[in-house]
Amino acid sequence: MAQADASMMDAGQGPARAETEKLVTSDGTPLKRALERAERQRKIAAVGLVAPLLIFLLTVFIWPIAQMMWLSVKNDQIVDALPRTLQELQTWDGQDLPGENVYAALHADMMEDLERDRRDRKTGPMGIRLNYELSAARSAVSRTSRNVDEFEAPYKDAFMDAHRLWGDPALWRVIKREGRPLTASYYVAALDREYAEDGSIVQRDENRRIYVPLFGRTLYLSVVITAMTFLLGFPIAYYMSILPMRQANLLMICVLLPFWTSLLVRTSAWIVLLQQQGVINSGLVAAGIIDDGSRLSMIYNQTGTIVAMTHILLPFMVLPLYSVMRTIPPSYMRAAKSLGATPSTAFRRVYFPQTLPGIGAGGVLVFIISIGYYITPALVGGQSGRMISNEIARHIQQSLNWGLAAALGTMLLVGVLILYWLFNRFVGSDSLKFG
Prior knowledge:
Layout: H1 2-22, H2 31-71, H3 77-81, H4 83-88, H5 100-114, H6 123-133, H7 137-147, H8 155-162, H9 169-178, H10 185-190, E1 193-195, E2 201-203, H11 211-242, H12 245-256, H13 263-274, H14 279-286, H15 302-325, H16 331-338, H17 343-354, H18 356-371, H19 375-380, H20 388-399, H21 402-426
Antiparallel strand pairs: 1-2
Helix pairs in contact: 2-21, 6-7, 11-12, 11-15, 11-18, 13-15, 15-18, 16-17, 20-21
């Protein structure tokens, strides 16, 4: 019976479908084709509207990140400068010094480079690259390249007389290991490890481990700053949400007021406030809380970094919280109290769970911003309050080891993505509410 009804329904719809297919527009185009063309034009228009934003993101965001990640493994300096030497080093066992054939190939490579235009020479970048792996390698290369045209066979003795490092097997091991287009040396160094004489990767001495403790300190400070902004921002957002709109807007202006002041000015103000002869310590001494010889050390350490960054990032926690709290009807709390709940129970079981989207959004914002912050830790953090971003900036601006800086930046980016993935896995990004 059901099959018969279905057959009758299909038979009834058949003429209707045929009639629809016969419909045409005013210019004689079938309606179905006109609708498909209109949909296609709508999609093209949408792509055209989004294209400038995509081009902007690719230009200023995706492409620089890709360049940074490529720079962390790029290793063409030695390959370009010493092609013959690397060819001869293929059969070297890495134990004693290479033979005369390797030194002769090195002489030929340096002589060829000496004939190039000064701006196109390869020995300079090669010396800088070798110096990242072995101290004094740059001076060995530069000193040798100036006099290499005067060398005569046997070239092994000539190179060893030019600089002591040419007689050190460690330099030749570095040349052979790094004579590849791609390298993992920057990531090895970023993990506080190094290559042993047999080519294995071992951990550095404890007094030379820098980057892994810095990553741990950065994570710790970011978590503490996020927690501090929550503890301070939650009461502020709650008070703003229960005030009349006129007064709430006035407080909102006070919250946003720091954005109208330069970040450098705000950070410098904390230096004035927190230093041992500053306003806070002088006030405590004047009030008799502490004596003049026991002034608190609140600057150029982790305390200064936490205080200054909490103040700077507090609005990023308040705004999402306020946007969520403002939408929670006050009748929910009154209903809970009317059913016998105490104010604390009603707040804990009715009100607080509804603020979790704002807490999550504010926490993600503050944590991600703080984990890559640079200016404030550099000015008020001192040695114990520095973060990994300060070390990245040091390698870019001072040591000029851009490969290591790129490796540290890539590791920081991957770490943030992993943390966000874990957050999305256990909490869910769809539960966030930014406004």
